């Protein structure tokens, strides 16, 4: 698998890169398309940024291509630099007041925990955290746990679709529907989802959804999107007010200054910035089609799950979920209690393995990403490295 696909990536050959989940990795043809956009910008920047000479159309071309992948209308999404920025837009646009509650789980991304802490300080609202039972083995138990946290003061349900620290695939559909029925805003962190799972945003029914394109979709860094249901787009205020804003942006049916909806124009046109990463998303989608990515992903999932099972056999530690609730190509593997920072450093210094090892809720975790450039031999090296560093006792069955 990886021997055929690794040549398409720019990763250093002297590093075993098992951390696609943090920042992704961009294939060479996609990166070359990125550089072509940057070169076109530098050759004639005035023409490149002029809406009348194609700037608006280029930005829309990406929205059209990405919307087809995401199962929504191009006017429901807008490009952002990353999912954190997109979710900050939402969090700071919602009119919360003292006593309002933001319901979330104990598996959320630390940067967004800080975002909501900031919102709490600004508004007087409060964050209520529910603890998801582990191992996650039941959609019904997950949904019941979330819904049990609703009160008459819950205004926002904030969930990850795929969790960052624990690599769990949260079955969010019924929880989202239950919140919508109660008039609770649903805000979904889908940073790891695009390109990792099939995603149909309109069918999901979330009010707000943010996703990265630079992770599993493999576009360049700085490409992400914000999705907002049409009837709620008037709620969103830009963090930067610039040429795309109009005083009538809250009025239904009004067109923005550059011919899009006010939602799109006020977030796309915010002063000078390099849009090359966003414009390269169609090239990333084409690369995936050209390489039968559904089959690549299937093989990566099988390799990730096999590696997790082999490590669990050595540690005697149970997984965090049953297979259907584990992210397909991303798995958080419990390891014996240890100095996780020291293990992380030793993996790189001794074995040239780039992979996060950290503490989460007093659990030691090694988080493995498997992408099309990885190989079974790299998984063997990882298992041997962890066995040595953690002083694991090899099971007789694994020695055979």
TrEMBL record:
What keywords were assigned to this record?
Aminotransferase, Pyridoxal phosphate, Transferase
Record-linked Pfam families: Aminotran_5
- Tell me the GO molecular function terms: transaminase activity
- InterPro entries from the entry? Aminotrans_V_dom (IPR000192), PyrdxlP-dep_Trfase (IPR015424), PyrdxlP-dep_Trfase_major (IPR015421), PyrdxlP-dep_Trfase_small (IPR015422)
- Asked if the keyword Transferase belongs to this entry, the reply reads yes
Lineage: superkingdom? Bacteria
Q: Where is the signal peptide?
A: none
**Has the keyword Transmembrane helix been applied to this entry?**
no
Q: Which residues form the Aminotransferase class V domain?
A: 33-354
Name the record gives this protein: Aminotransferase class V
């Amino acid at each position: 698998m990886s021997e055929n696909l690794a040549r398409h990536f720019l990763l250093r050959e002297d590093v075993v890169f098992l951390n696609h989940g943090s920042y992704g990795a961009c294939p060479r043809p996609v990166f070359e398309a990125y550089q072509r956009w940057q070169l076109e910008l530098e050759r004639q920047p005035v023409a490149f940024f002029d809406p009348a000479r194609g700037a608006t159309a280029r930005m829309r071309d990406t929205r059209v291509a990405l919307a087809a992948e995401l199962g929504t209308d191009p006017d429901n999404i807008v490009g952002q630099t990353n999912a954190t920025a997109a979710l900050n837009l939402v969090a700071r646009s919602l009119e919360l007041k003292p006593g309002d509650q933001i319901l979330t789980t104990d598996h959320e991304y630390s940067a967004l925990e800080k975002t909501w802490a900031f919102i709490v300080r600004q508004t007087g609202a409060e964050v209520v955290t529910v603890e998801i039972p582990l191992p996650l083995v039941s959609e019904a138990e997950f949904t019941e746990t979330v819904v049990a946290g609703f009160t008459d003061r819950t205004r926002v349900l904030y969930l990850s679709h795929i969790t960052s620290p624990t690599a769990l695939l949260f079955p969010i559909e019924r929880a989202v529907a239950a919140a919508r029925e109660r008039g609770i805003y649903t805000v979904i962190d889908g940073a790891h989802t695009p390109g990792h799972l099939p995603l149909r945003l309109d069918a999901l029914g979330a009010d707000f959804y943010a996703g990265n394109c630079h992770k599993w979709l493999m576009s360049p860094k700085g490409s992400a999107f914000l999705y907002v249901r049409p009837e709620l787009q008037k709620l969103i205020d830009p963090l930067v007010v610039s040429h795309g804003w109009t005083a009538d942006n809250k009025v239904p049916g009004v067109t923005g200054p550059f011919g899009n909806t006010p939602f799109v124009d006020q977030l796309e046109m915010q002063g000078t910035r390099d849009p090359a990463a966003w414009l390269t998303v169609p090239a990333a989608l084409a690369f995936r089609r050209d390489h039968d990515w559904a089959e690549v992903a299937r093989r990566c999932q099988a390799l990730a799950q096999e590696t997790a099972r082999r490590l669990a056999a050595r540690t005697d530690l149970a997984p965090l979920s049953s297979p259907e609730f584990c992210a397909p190509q991303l798995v958080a593997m419990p390891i014996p209690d240890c100095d996780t920072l020291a293990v992380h450093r030793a993996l790189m210094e001794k074995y040239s393995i780039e992979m996060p090892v950290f503490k989460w809720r007093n659990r030691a975790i090694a988080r493995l990403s498997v992408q099309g450039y990885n190989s079974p031999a790299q998984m063997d090296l990882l298992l041997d490295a962890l066995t040595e560093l953690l002083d694991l006792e090899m099971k007789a069955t694994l020695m055979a």
